[in-house]
Amino acid sequence: MRILIVEDDCFLAEAVSDYFSAKGWQTEEAHDGNSALEMAASGNWQMILLDVMLPGMDGFSVCREIRRSSDVPVFFITARVLEADELNGYAVGADDYVTKPFSLPVLYAKVMAMMGRIRGGRPEERVRRGDVEVDAGTRKVYVQGKERFLPPKEFEMLLFFLENPNRTFTREQLLIRFWGYDFDGNERVVDNHIKKLRKALAGSVCVIRTVRKSGYRMEVPS
After folding, report:
1. pLDDT of the residue at 72
2. What is the rounded CA–CA span in Å between residue 177 and residue 145?
3. Which pLDDT does position 74 carry in this prediction?
4. C-beta neighbour count of 71 within 10 angstroms
5. How far is CA 204 from each of CA 102, 136, 157, 170, 220, rounded to the nearest angstrom?
6. CB burial class (10 A; 0-12, 13-18, 19+) of residue 181?
7. What pLDDT, on a 0 to 100 scale, did the predictor assign at position 4?
8. Angle at 36 (CA atoms; ends 33, 39), nearest 5 degrees
9. What pLDDT does residue 33 have?
């Protein structure tokens, strides 16, 4: 997953970049409108975070140009909260607004929610790892060629692990990804669903491992 962070405040850009990098994203930074437009055109991005007030070309103009050739999700980052600005942002193609000052976990949760909606828009997608196959359109799961029924939450978690094989995710990451940043329960809910998912995968070569003091990862054969 690649994210372009367009922000003229270098300290804020670095903080956002470090946070997303720690979550496994590849990040790049631009600090003015013209550079942002060049980088947006030259890279394959899954998300662009775009400040409104930029040197040279402003964020509205950058977004308008991006939309001429790309439907990559764009989140505006702004200290301005005028209704006219928000309406202008949506008019030029923004997907959402994030108002400064903001929480990095909240920003990350909004980005991941957008990624989830985009993935949900690809109903024909089939993912196969080892002897496990998932059809995202029909929401059917096959383990060693046999269909296994999974409730919605376990299905989404399985698809996520299959799309990110051999990567470790903390309980906090999984909690935000599947229950949202405002979930008022505790991280043990993740453990309970992992237990159910392991039961559904019994006998498979794809195994969800516990990473001590970290979280979980799905190991799949190469």
Report:
1. 87
2. 29
3. 92
4. 10
5. 42, 19, 16, 23, 9
6. middle
7. 96
8. 155
9. 92
**Whole-number Å distance between alpha carbons of 67 and 166:** 35
Q: What is the pTM of this model?
A: 0.56
CA 88/CA 192 separation, integer angstroms: 44
DSSP-derived letter for residue 157 is: H
C-alpha distances in Å from residue 109, one per residue of 44, 45, 116, 125: 21, 18, 10, 23
pLDDT < 70 positions in the chain:
80-81, 118-125, 137, 180-185
> E strands, 14-82, where?
26-30, 47-51, 74-78
Element (H, E) at 15: helix 10-22
**Which strands form 140-143's sheet, in the order they lie side by side?**
126-129, 132-135, 140-143, 146-148
Two tokens at 174? 């999984």
- Give the sign of the dihedral formed by CA 27, CA 179, CA 219, CA 170: positive
Give me the sign of the Cα torsion angle 35, 48, 94, 184. negative
pLDDT of residue 155: 87
What per-residue confidence (pLDDT) applies to 125?
66
Tell me if 208 sits within 8 A of 202, measured CB to CB. no
